[in-house]
């Protein structure tokens, strides 16, 4: 039982559905207890005239509590564990239900009852198909992988594919020479099939192309993802970042659209704030960065950007705190280390700035901005020639 409870807890930490193992165990123990109760009653009836058995029975069952503990004791541990794990999961969600969007489960957000009913009915058949032959998997089948059943024409054609091929094999009109015509099922099954038009495939491929530096390809696939799923906020956000240099107006539109779709996404706030900062709208940028930090306190980049804006306004102490907070979250981020070095350089702390630039280059040797900043500050302060070279010569 201990291993059972530990396994259930580990399963829950891996995936929420892992907790389902405990209700299954509880049902199993209920049936097992019923079986033990029936066997005990039958044994008592058979041996009711046996004096020795009667004394043992009397001693074993002289307390109803002991009897019921013997009968239902195995249920106690999984029930307590189930309650404890549910409480832990609810605490992790801060007492609220998980937040989902329409791209996670389109049918659940569809207002038309008939569309929801037809789609959910189709999903039952689709799940059975995957259960019997999981040859076509697509990570949760989100973002339009299974289109909603909202057109009468689509439903009618599907019914025709199901019904008409089956009529000759149904024995309703003519006698046929088989019990089940398997070949007919291949045609009927086409009435239950859907060609995936998965926006996330294009989104993931666009992310890959962006990382490889193929910006035009990335933009093309982000646009394709949005044509398949116009309310995919991450595609809007990422497309906006790629359009910042080419078309600021369109980039701003995509950031705002991402926030309209999902006002709890911290990255569009951050990207829109950087755009406004570039335009000189520092007050708007500060408010957006604060909102981004509020939504995700572990998102390091907004702290650094907010620190830069505070430094421009002369709030150096607050800026220093924000830089240190960003580095506390991501100490191995070369961009954040370089930004802190630039802040220290502007505030006159050249020696500490050099240390930060060197640290950034240790993390990422090809960081050209940190290298350029280090060269400029050492040349400006004449530290490289007057201090470092004599030390090397003396050694």
Automatic annotation (TrEMBL):
It catalyses: a di-trans,poly-cis-dolichyl beta-D-mannosyl phosphate + L-threonyl-[protein] = 3-O-(alpha-D-mannosyl)-L-threonyl-[protein] + a di-trans,poly-cis-dolichyl phosphate + H(+); a di-trans,poly-cis-dolichyl beta-D-mannosyl phosphate + L-seryl-[protein] = 3-O-(alpha-D-mannosyl)-L-seryl-[protein] + a di-trans,poly-cis-dolichyl phosphate + H(+). TPR repeats lie at residues 199-232, 266-299, 300-333, 334-367. It is an enzyme of class 2 (transferase). Residues 95-149 form the DUF1736 domain. The keyword Calcium does not apply. It is found in: Endoplasmic reticulum; Membrane. Its EC number is 2.4.1.109. Keywords: Endoplasmic reticulum, Membrane, Repeat, TPR repeat, Transferase, Transmembrane, Transmembrane helix. It holds the Pfam family TPR_19. The chain crosses the membrane at residues 6-31, 65-88, 113-133, 154-180. Belongs to the TMTC family. This is dolichyl-phosphate-mannose--protein mannosyltransferase. It comes from Dinothrombium tinctorium. The lineage of its organism: Eukaryota, Metazoa, Ecdysozoa, Arthropoda, Chelicerata.
């Amino acid at each position: 039982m201990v291993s059972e409870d530990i396994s259930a807890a580990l399963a829950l930490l891996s995936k929420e559905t892992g907790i389902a193992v405990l209700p299954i165990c509880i049902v199993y123990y209920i049936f097992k207890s019923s079986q033990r109760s029936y066997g005990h009653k039958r044994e008592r009836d058979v041996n009711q005239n046996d004096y020795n058995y009667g004394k043992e029975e009397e001693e074993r069952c002289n307390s109803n509590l002991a009897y019921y503990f013997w009968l239902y004791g195995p249920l106690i541990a999984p029930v307590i564990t189930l309650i404890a794990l549910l409480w832990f999961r609810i605490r992790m969600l801060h007492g609220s239900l998980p937040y989902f969007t329409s791209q996670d489960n389109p049918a659940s957000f569809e207002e038309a009852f008939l569309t929801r009913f037809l789609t959910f009915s189709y999903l039952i058949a689709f799940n059975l198909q995957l259960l019997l032959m999981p040859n076509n998997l697509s990570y949760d089948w989100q973002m339009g992988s299974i289109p909603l059943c909202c057109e009468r024409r689509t439903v009618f054609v599907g019914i025709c594919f199901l019904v008409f091929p089956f009529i000759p094999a149904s024995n309703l009109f003519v006698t046929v020479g088989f019990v089940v015509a398997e070949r007919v099922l291949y045609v009927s099954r086409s009435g239950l099939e859907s060609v995936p038009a998965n926006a996330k495939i294009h989104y993931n491929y666009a992310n890959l192309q962006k990382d490889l530096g193929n910006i035009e390809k990335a933009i093309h696939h982000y646009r394709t993802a949005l044509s398949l799923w116009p309310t995919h906020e991450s595609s809007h956000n990422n497309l906006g970042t790629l359009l910042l240099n080419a078309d600021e107006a369109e980039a701003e539109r995509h950031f705002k659209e991402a926030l309209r779709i999902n006002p709890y996404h911290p990255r569009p706030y951050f990207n829109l704030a950087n755009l406004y900062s570039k335009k000189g709208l520092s007050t708007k940028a500060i408010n957006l960065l604060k909102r981004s930090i509020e939504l995700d306190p572990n998102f390091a980049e907004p702290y650094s950007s907010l620190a830069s804006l505070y430094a421009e306004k002369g709030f150096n102490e607050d800026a220093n705190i924000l830089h240190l907070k960003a580095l506390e979250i991501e100490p191995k981020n070369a961009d954040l280390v370089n930004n802190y070095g630039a802040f220290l350089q502007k505030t006159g702390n050249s020696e500490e700035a050099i240390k930060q630039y060197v640290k950034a280059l240790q993390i990422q040797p090809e960081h050209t901005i940190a290298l350029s900043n280090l060269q400029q500050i050492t040349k400006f302060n004449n530290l490289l020639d007057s201090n470092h070279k004599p030390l090397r010569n003396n050694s």
